[in-house]
Amino acid sequence: MDHGHPAAKINLRNDYSEGAHPRLLQALAMASTEVNRGYGLDVHSERASALIRDRLGRDADVHFLAGGTQTNLVALAAFLRPHEAVIAPASGHIATHETGAIEASGHKVLTVATPDGKLSPELIQPCVDGHAGEHMVKPRMVYISNTTEWGTLYSALELQALGAFCRSRGLLLYVDGARLASALTTPGNDVDLALLSTEADAFYIGGTKNGALLGEALVIVNPALRTDFRHVIKQRGAMLAKGMVVGAQFEALFEDGLYFVLATHANVMAEQLREMLQQAGVPLAVDSPSNQVFPMLPNALVERLQQYVEFETWERRGDGTTVIRLMTSWATPESAIEAFAGIFPALYREGRAAMAASQAQGA
Amino acid sequence: MDHGHPAAKINLRNDYSEGAHPRLLQALAMASTEVNRGYGLDVHSERASALIRDRLGRDADVHFLAGGTQTNLVALAAFLRPHEAVIAPASGHIATHETGAIEASGHKVLTVATPDGKLSPELIQPCVDGHAGEHMVKPRMVYISNTTEWGTLYSALELQALGAFCRSRGLLLYVDGARLASALTTPGNDVDLALLSTEADAFYIGGTKNGALLGEALVIVNPALRTDFRHVIKQRGAMLAKGMVVGAQFEALFEDGLYFVLATHANVMAEQLREMLQQAGVPLAVDSPSNQVFPMLPNALVERLQQYVEFETWERRGDGTTVIRLMTSWATPESAIEAFAGIFPALYREGRAAMAASQAQGA
Amino acid sequence: MDHGHPAAKINLRNDYSEGAHPRLLQALAMASTEVNRGYGLDVHSERASALIRDRLGRDADVHFLAGGTQTNLVALAAFLRPHEAVIAPASGHIATHETGAIEASGHKVLTVATPDGKLSPELIQPCVDGHAGEHMVKPRMVYISNTTEWGTLYSALELQALGAFCRSRGLLLYVDGARLASALTTPGNDVDLALLSTEADAFYIGGTKNGALLGEALVIVNPALRTDFRHVIKQRGAMLAKGMVVGAQFEALFEDGLYFVLATHANVMAEQLREMLQQAGVPLAVDSPSNQVFPMLPNALVERLQQYVEFETWERRGDGTTVIRLMTSWATPESAIEAFAGIFPALYREGRAAMAASQAQGA
Amino acid sequence: MDHGHPAAKINLRNDYSEGAHPRLLQALAMASTEVNRGYGLDVHSERASALIRDRLGRDADVHFLAGGTQTNLVALAAFLRPHEAVIAPASGHIATHETGAIEASGHKVLTVATPDGKLSPELIQPCVDGHAGEHMVKPRMVYISNTTEWGTLYSALELQALGAFCRSRGLLLYVDGARLASALTTPGNDVDLALLSTEADAFYIGGTKNGALLGEALVIVNPALRTDFRHVIKQRGAMLAKGMVVGAQFEALFEDGLYFVLATHANVMAEQLREMLQQAGVPLAVDSPSNQVFPMLPNALVERLQQYVEFETWERRGDGTTVIRLMTSWATPESAIEAFAGIFPALYREGRAAMAASQAQGA
Q: In principle, which of A17, B275, C60, C193 could form an S-S bond with C55, CB 3.0–4.6 Å?
């Protein structure tokens, strides 16, 4: 979780510490001088929807919501019958960090252990097979995120395999795209919004973590899931009176590709971090090509590093090391990476030496 | 509900068609250049909370949420046990225009008919007495709004009577303040935030309808209701990652009284409307001193007026008249009132004449 | 509600004070010596389902549940999406005496005032028309009971009109049959199970109030409502491990018409009460031809009568009278009616005289 | 799950295939001739409550409900706030076989892997520690069952350790006693109802699986959990109009110890099974001293055995064996055990030989 971080420290904590990109603020200022229809029926929301649909190459309903947990819970509340459950990776956001929002809507989250936060037909199959009959919930949806909580991403082939599996088993495929921007702009990525809309029944395009003040664009591709969706938005308290607040930001993000520019910057900054860590010989807990980097550090180094850098502690391992998460954002200045590179190698050598000494003593 | 309204028309539709006051946009732009803690733990939210608490003269928890329906549902979900119900006026927002958000949280809304949208001990008593035993829900909370859906407001005496009644009957008192700004700045009002915090267990201070892009400040006075409230905010999808988005706006609204200045403007504009209507001899459906005006017009006039003015149709009466709602906002220009005054009297005379002719024919 | 009642008093309190008819107890004793499949998949439940289907003349799913509130909540939880609401008479059981069970499943109950507990297209229409758009719940089901809470019943014509209206408006029709036995055996009734299954999408056949220890048979006629229904039964805690407990009782009730014999007895006993009251000149609050009788008595008489008779007090009127409910059951002995007839007329004359004297004094 | 089983087969499927013990049926027949108050306020329910309280040696509220899933969901719905979660063994009934009933009430079930279905402070601790802050559900209750789904049971020391841990961590302890009768009558057991009531905040005494037609007795020891509990029973559709149906059965079970006699019989029958299996050299998957026995059999034997015996298949292992569950009940005749003993050894030798041959072939 978040703790205070004086500006003096190097900020690599997350991708939502900074506000909005200036062009989004400008769009909001412009729209604020207008008279707009309420509840998401304004011209900005409509235009932003159209811009997104253009990239799909197919029809879809687009709804603008405030945040990721909200989007997930509204979607699942609308899509599932009471006894239907969603299958998620054990590390999935809905399974771990949404305070039981899905359960509060009445649905069980079935979790599957994964090495890297990603699901596959092989991982899902036993969960589906293991839930038969009326004494168990009925798996009805597969939830994945792209990128995942571990910064990993799905290839086109992997998504197609998941999509085909879900269709063959009567499962809906839902993609949490809080960090979709990062996924789509990672070097080597071969997924685009069009492909996503071919495989997923619904997905959302995250704005909050890519330069917006707030906002996610939920794309409902499957026509059967569209009926009365605005009723459910309203019922869950998720319909903004001034819907243009999100619409205008997405309009600015998608009218000329700013959405991808911002994410690319975050990815480039992360790549610089990875390279620097590699040169310093630091092992990474997972091979994540996106804006999240998970170095494994000697325990003692973690605390020391916190004096200079803002970051999240991810996982304490048994072997004297701790996985930390370094995260870049659309707003991470190159100077932050340079500053980090300036202090880290020496600290790391120190930490390694201390660990070796301590282990020698222990043995 | 809202329909499209070309800028050419005079806009008296509602108080959320316009965006944010420039000073709030400026505050957001400033905060956007900073690194802030997430989830409402930022310095702006903290300062805004402190500014609000200062006006209460007592301790309270302040939480910033996105909109009114959301605030109501999060609060009631947190405050009530499953079998506990809330008593509301039949015209109350939670009873009519929130798509069953309270019921979706599991709670029944018990409604009481009122002449003007206001509850009193006398109106509540029979509802409380009529719900005894385990075969009925247990009334546990009284919900009022100030101003009400009919633009009426509570006096200090009325609030004190309600507060005393609730305390004596083990009921919580909750005040929906979507338009609290309008109430507190109406001439003749004798309620302030301090008094509100003495009588209500919790209430919210509306921002969306008084110059903010979005945002309501929920004030929880009763200590027993505060435990784990942030868990419930998160669970209902109502915790903004960039909580400063609302915090910074409330900071701007409360640091030097802008909140009251904006509402006063809306009220003054409405008062000019009321005076004009009175001079034209138009009866009002209810005596509302705030930013909502409810003239009763000949049915035929309503459609004609819609060619020039944006407004809501409220209630068709059996006597050939229709109640419409004219609403002003913090952003309503004086020129709009003047334009309305320029066209209305002639249209009204015409409409009255047509109605008289039609009634003569009918007789 | 229920209060203690020594056996010495004449019992006209309700139709669930007595246990089960001996033939049902015998059926349970027989089935108890067998080995049966669990969870309602036993031969008794299957045969009981077949016996009921035979009377419908059409295919339907039949599920056996424990009680009326449970049946209503399981059915509505399964049939409605989150934003969909049910329209009920204001006196309807789901609206008044189920402790918000429907709301606890997330759905709003929209109520319509009625003179006699019965709904009609004319009464429903305004409620449907008044709920449009995503800011309001969407009316999706009409709930009626037969007989109603006021002991009144629907004619075939009335049911057909309701059915046609519902089909034309995309509404489901659901019939609460807690006292369906009484309705179907009332002299003058022209509804049977076959007609009910033509007009209603689902309904239940009450057992608890007609000679069973517990148990209601839910009949789902509309195929679209049948999917995964057993999942929802289980999820709501309504699936009995020993499902034969209800199945065997319904088998006994329906294998040779005992269900109708028992209800006929209750109706005959009530008719004797009505005749006696009529001869004594007692006005009835509503013209109910079934096993519920609602005399209006001088207030002072009510307390006096409670010394001799067990009954429910229904409604205190402003004119010095109180409506009480006298109810007969399958087990009401003729001697109880005779005993009542033996003491009532004198008490009533006394009570009338006292009321007249008191009014004279008051004038 | 359950499948059909002609009477000819030996029945070792479960402990709810048979109906009620004759003395319970007799009690129901007697009570059926009386006039009783409804909704669990009858004299039988009151006396049964008193009989149970006598065995606790302390004050407690006792409520009679219909089944285990229902009891669990009503209790947790009443005891937990929306964001509060329950910790259960991964094999726990609420986690696996209740179709998400707890989630349908809004609460997350946090699961902990166990070797034998039992929880301990050591197993629970990491789950509690791992859930901090408002982005996660708040563990508030520990759910265990005694006996467990694996037929294992808790010692007094183990229960006391759990109780102490829960109290020290602000956790409620809830015991699912669907098969509590079996636990309390197992040789070597040192737990009784008094001790249970000292350690658990609430627990239920199972009737359905120990000779009743239906019914569980929920005992609420912790006074803070008692408020308005009957409201929640009613709201969840769990209040029987004829509450005496369960009350009279529990009266019969507890008035002279029949409850323990019935369970003892089941345990003795299971012990005979275990001895026979041991003599035949069959390994057991878990050391369960109660009425459930889990032999590991060659896969091919399982199908063959099903021709003669009714039982559940529990778990297919990778080594060519399958764990099956043999279960005895209060009604299992000694002749069934003898019949099983008559056919099993030869079948087992055959099966072992076939498996050996097949493995030799495979190698």
A: C193
